[in-house]
Specification:
Number of strands: 2
Low-confidence stretches: none
GO cellular component, one term: cytoplasm
Oligomer: single chain
Strand content: under 5%
Number of helices: 3
Protein name: BTBD10/KCTD20 BTB/POZ domain-containing protein
Order of helices and strands: HEHEH
Structural class: mainly alpha
Organism: Marmota monax (Woodchuck)
Subcellular location: Cytoplasm
Keywords: Cytoplasm
Length: 126
């Protein structure tokens, strides 16, 4: 990854001789994520953006879930985890409900298919 003999060397030192792994990942977030490789858990201190931490975990192929992330801002963590649930739910609706209708329209020779979703769901506890 850092050696000059690599065919696809995607890293290089900056003007200070430091290697930049990924543009856009702050040193604070990267330092926080490094703890994962020691302990298996990321303890997110106050002041770290949970979406930035999420992006970094995605980039470094670290599972972003309640087993790996510990933080004080529980609301932000639950918001990110809720996004995962919403994406999975939308994928289900797309594959099971929307896509078959669109394919049916295409098989009839239609060039356009407009689908309007008028319902919402509430996921309550209990």
């Amino acid at each position: 990854m850092f050696g000059p003999g690599r065919e696809y060397n995607f890293t290089g030192p900056n003007e200070k001789g430091e290697y930049e792994i990924a543009e856009g990942i702050s040193a604070t977030v990267f330092r926080t994520v490094l703890d994962y490789y020691k302990t298996g858990i990321i303890n997110c201190p106050d002041g770290i953006s949970i979406p930035d931490l999420r992006d970094t975990c995605d980039y470094l192929c670290i599972n972003f879930d309640f087993n790996t992330i510990r933080c004080q801002d529980l609301s932000a963590l639950l918001h990110e985890l809720s996004n995962d649930g919403a994406h999975k739910q939308f994928d289900h609706y797309l594959e099971e409900l929307i896509l078959p209708i669109m394919v049916g329209c295409a098989k009839k020779g239609e060039r356009e298919c407009h689908i309007v979703v008028l319902t919402g769901r509430f996921c309550g506890l209990g």
